[in-house]
Amino acid sequence: MLQTHNLRVSFGKKQVLRGIDIGFAEGKITAVMGSNGCGKTTLLRCLAGLLKPSGGSVFLNDNDISTLKPSLLARQMAFVTQHANADVDFTARQVVTMGRNPYLRPLQNESLLDHEIVKDCMIKTNTWHLRDVYPSQLSGGELQRVMIARALAQQPSILLLDEPVSSLDIAHQIDIMSLLRKASNTTIIVVLHDVNLALRFSDNLLLIHNGQVLYQGSVDKGITPENIMTVYGVNCVVDNRNVLFSYDQD
User: Fold this and answer.
1) pTM of the predicted structure, to 2 decimals
2) Residue 241 pLDDT more than 80?
C-alpha cells in the first residue's frame, strides 16, 4: 500500500504540492493527469523517494519511505523517468540487466535466472532485437522502451512511470499500455496526457490541479467535461468511453 499524508513541496517561494492526501489501490493502474506544471512529476519523485518533501510523508506498507534502505525500496518500487539518459557506455541489454542489481550482493554476477528475466522483459517491450545497441544509437521511443524493460526487470510491486509513452508512436503506445494492463499484482502509477489512453487502460484517475487533488477515484467517473474544463480549459464530450474535443474555428 502506497499513500501520502499532507504531502507538501515548495521550491523557493513557489508551492508546487499543497497538502496531498492520497492512497493507491493495490494491483491497479492509476493515471495521474493535470496541466503542465501542476506537480505531477514532483509527486512521482516524492513517491519514489527521490525528492524529499517540504512537509508531510510518503508511506509504503505503513513505513515512511525515508526510513527504508535504498536496496529494499528498489526491490519494491521502480521508477521510469520522462527523459532517459542516453549518454552511457552500456548496451541496451546491459542497461536492462541493471534492473536486477537490487537482488545482487556486491560484486555478485547475475544468475541464469537473472538473464532469463532480462530477456523476457526485453521481448515483452519489443527491445530484444536492440540488445547489443548502445542507448546513444537508439531513437527516443526505443530508449524509452528499454528503460521500461529495465523497470520491469526489477520485478517491483509498485511501478511509477512519468509520461512513458509520450515519445512513442501510436502502435507502441498501445503495446506498452497493454503490457502494463497485463502486469497483474503490480500497482502502477502512470503520468499520462492522453485522456483516451487513460480511459482505455487505467482503473483509477488522480487529477492534480494547482498543486492539489481535484479528483481521485474511478477513471470512468473522473473524466468528465466539467473536470476536463477545470484542468485543461477545453470543451469536450465523453461518449462511450471516448473523449471528443471541440475546437473553436475562426
Assistant:
1) 0.92
2) no
